[in-house]
């Protein structure tokens, strides 16, 4: 089921079951998602085994947008923690909207998101090391 604009489908509605993977870290990102209902957990896998939860996205939240902005592989994985309905925003739709925006703003956005990727990567590693030593984290 999709959302159309005339005859063109611009957004796609997708349903995920509890614990179903939406996308995996390291894979190409071709869509961003808005949570219509349900909840999504974003997590990183360190050393091919240890999962570090970066956060959750509730109804109304957006995730997966980084890969659309900077064309880098997914920096984390996403899975539904309950039955979840998502609205997928395709790369084509996103790029069309970005092309219509100011070039300066696009450049700043790419720089900010590159910095964000670096911070999240380092934070996930630090959190995993703290957990190894049973040091609690304040949320």
Give the low-confidence spans: none
Report the helical percentage: 25-40%
**What is the name of the CATH class?**
Mainly Beta
Q: What is the topology, as strand order, of the major beta sheet?
A: 1-2-9-4-7
Count of separate structural domains: 1
The class by helix and strand makeup works out as: alpha+beta
**N-C termini distance:** 37 Å
CATH architecture: Sandwich
Strand tally: 9
User: Which series of helices and strands comes N to C?
Assistant: EEEEEEEHEEHH
Roughly what fraction of the amino acids lie in strands? 35-45%
Helix count? 3
Going by CATH, the homologous superfamily would be Jelly Rolls
Note the quaternary state here: single chain
Q: Which topology does CATH recognise? A: Jelly Rolls
Q: What is the overall silhouette?
A: globular
Fold and architecture overview:
The structure is a single chain. By secondary structure, the protein is of the alpha+beta class. The chain has one domain: Jelly Rolls. The chain contains 3 helices and 9 strands. The strands form 2 sheets. The chain has a 5-stranded antiparallel β-sheet with strand order 1-2-9-4-7. The chain has a 4-stranded antiparallel β-sheet with strand order 3-8-5-6, covered by helices on one side. The model has no long low-confidence stretch (mean pLDDT 85).
List the helices and strands and how they pair.
Elements: E1 2-5, E2 8-16, E3 21-23, E4 31-37, E5 39-46, E6 50-58, E7 62-63, H1 65-70, E8 77-80, E9 84-90, H2 91-99, H3 103-132
Antiparallel strand pairs: 1-2, 2-9, 3-8, 4-7, 4-9, 5-6, 5-8
């Amino acid at each position: 089921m999709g959302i159309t604009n005339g005859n063109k489908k611009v957004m796609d509605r997708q349903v995920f079951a509890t614990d179903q993977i939406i996308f995996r870290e390291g894979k190409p990102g071709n869509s961003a998602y808005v949570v219509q209902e349900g909840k999504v957990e974003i997590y990183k896998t360190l050393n091919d085994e240890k999962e570090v939860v970066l956060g959750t996205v509730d109804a109304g939240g957006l995730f997966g947008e980084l890969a659309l902005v900077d064309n880098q592989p997914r920096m984390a994985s996403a899975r539904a923690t309950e039955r979840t309905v998502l609205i997928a925003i395709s790369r084509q739709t996103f790029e069309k909207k970005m092309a219509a925006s100011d070039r300066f703003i696009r450049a700043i956005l790419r720089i900010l998101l590159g910095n964000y990727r670096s911070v999240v990567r380092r934070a996930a590693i630090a959190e995993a090391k703290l957990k190894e030593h049973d040091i609690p984290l304040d949320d």
